[in-house]
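## Example pair
The file below holds two records. Each record gives the amino-acid sequence first, followed by its C-alpha cell line.
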Amino acid sequence: MFQSWEVFSPYQTGRISHGSTLAQFPNGNLITAWYSGSSEGHSDVGIYASTYNLLQKSWSLPRLIEKKNQKSSEGNPVFFFDDKTDRLWLFWVTMDKLINGHLGGWSTCRIKCKHSMDFGKTWSKVRYLHNSWGWMTRNKPIRMSNGNIMLPIYIELLRYKSTFLVCPKKSFEKGAIESKWVKMANIGGGVLQPTVIELSKGHLLAYHRTAKRSSIRKRIAMSESVDFGKTWSLAIPTPLPNPNSGSDMVKLRNGNIVLAFNNSSIDRSNLSIGLSYDNGNTWSFIKLLEREKGQRFSYPAIIEASDETIYCTYTNKRMNIKCVNFDQEWIRRIS
C-alpha cells in the first residue's frame, strides 16, 4: 500500500517551504506544519499548517500559525500530540537577533512552545521553552516508558552538539513546562538534529546528522543511552550515508524501526525509507522514495498511524511539502 500527496501547491506559501513536522489526532486526521517565506532565515518567514481530513481525503488550505513580527524569522516546527491530555504541542525556534539591521542566523535562535486544546484551531500564549541562543528543535519528542517526555534538540552556538530536554510526566500533563525541562548531556563530534527512539526500558537509540567538519563526516552517526538519556555514549558512525542532512525514525508497535533519510553521502537528490528488524543493527530493506538529479528531497518527519501504516512528510524541492502513506509491505516490495 502506498499513496502520495502534495500538501499544497508549489510556492503557495512562499518561495521556499522547508522543515515539516507531522502528528495524528485520535479521529485519524493529520496535521503538518512547516516554515515558509522568501528565503530561509528571512524576516518574512512564518510557520504554516495544514490538516488532512481522513474522511474527505483532502488537505486544508495552508494557514499561518506562528509569526512573531517582521523583525524575526521562525523555523523548525515540531508537533507532539499528547494523548494523555489531548493537547497538541508546537515547539519551534525564533531567530530575532539583529546585527546591523540583519538577522543573526540560526545560532541566535531560541526555543519557544505553545499548545492547542482544539486540534490546532486556537493556541495558548507563546512561551520560551529555553531562552539561550543557538538552541534548536528539529525532530519530534517521544514519551519514554517512565512517562517523561524527551525533546531532541541541538546547539549551533560555537560548535554543533546534539542533546535532549526531558520534562517530568506530571509537569508536562499539567502544561506547566516552562521551567521544568532538564537538559541532558551533550553529544559532541560535530553531530546535530538527533532523532530518538526507546528500544527497551531506559535504553535509547539516537541517530544524528553529521556536519561537514564532523569527524564522522558523510555517515549518519549514532549514540545510545541506558539511563533514560541522562548519559550518552560517544557518537560513532553507522554504515548509512549522510550528506549533511536530517533524518527521522520511528519505532513501530511491532518493534521494527523505520528510518527516513537521504541515502547518499553527496547530496539530497534522493530520499529513502529503511526497515530494521533488529534495533537498527542492520537494515534489511532500503526502499527508494524519491530521486531526481539536481533536486532536493529532505528533512523528513515520520510517524506510525493508528492503523499501523506509516506517514512521512518531507521537503519537495523546497517548493512545497509532500506527504506519503505506506505500510511495511511496500518497503519490502522489490520495485
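Second record, same layout:
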Amino acid sequence: MAFSEEIFSLKNSNGEMMHGVIHHPEKPNGALVLMFNIGLHYRVCHSRLFVRQARDMQKNGFTVVRLDTSRVGYSHGEIPIGRAIDSYDAVQTGLFKDDALVFLQYLKNRFNPRKIFFCGLCGGALTAIIAAAAADEVDGVVFIAGPVTVTSPEYELSTMHPFHADILVAGYLKRLLSPSAWGRFFSGKTSYRSLFTSLKVKLAARLKKSEAFNGADKTGDPESGEENKGELFNRVFYESFEALMKSGKKIVFIMPELDRATYDFDSVFAKKVLRHFTESAHLFKVARIPKANHTFSTPESTRCLFDMTNEWLTSNLP
C-alpha cells in the first residue's frame, strides 16, 4: 500500500530545530502515537525497525510520529558529554523529557486526538515514561525493552553483567563432555579469566539478589545529570512509573527474552516492585516475546512486537 508521510520541524525551548516524520493513516482512529528515538540513534532505529513499526500502526488507523529530539539525528544541538556511556545514563534519567513535551504540545494542538500514546525502545522507552509522567494529556506508554537500571561508567566498564555470565557459563556447561574442550583447558588455550569471572559473577548474583533493589524510595533531580551514579535501580524511572499509576495512566512493558534489559527488569523491578502495586494491576501489563533480542532482529520477533503493540493500543481506544 502507499504510505502518506510528512516531514515537519519545530524549535525547542533552547531554539534548537528538531525534526520528525508524521505517518498519516488512510482512516484515522483518533489516536496519536509519538515514537521517541532509541538512545543516541535517530528516528529510523536498527534495521529501519521504527519505520516498519510506524507503518504497521498507520495501517491500523493510528497517526504515528517518529521523532528526533535535539542533539540526535537530523535535529540541531550537541550532547555536552564525552563518553557514550555517560550519554546513555543521561537519556535514561530524562535528558530528552523537555523536547518530548514540546513535540507533544505541537502535535496535540495540530491533531486534537482523542487518545495520545508515547512509545519507545531502550532509551526511548525511558524518554516515553518520564515525559508521560509529566504530561496530563498522555493516556498511555508502550515501553519496549527499556533498561530499569543506571550504573556508574566505572562499574559498567569493569564488571561482567549476570546476563552475560549466564551465557558464558551455559556455553562451558555444554562442553563439559567434550574431550577437545578439556584439551584446550589443560593446554592453556581456554580463557581462564572469562571462565572464572563468569562463575564468580553468577554465584554472586545468586547470593546477593536481595541487594539488587536499593533506592526506589529515594528522590532525585533528573536535570542534574548525576542521579543514580554508582547505584543500580533507576529511581527516576521508578518515580515516573509511580506517577503513572497514581494518575491512572496505562503502560505495557514489552520485553524480549534474550536481552540484558529483561534480566534486570525481572530481577530488579518485576519481582521486587510490581508486587507493591496490586491495586494498580489493571493499569499495567507485562508482555514477553520469546527468542527475541534487544533489536528484534528476526522476522518472527518483529511481527510479534508489532502485533502486541497494535493489540494493546487498540484495546485502549475509546
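Notes on the second record: Strands lie at 4-11, 17-24, 31-36, 63-68, 115-121, 140-144, 250-256, 284-289. The longest helix spans residues 299-315.
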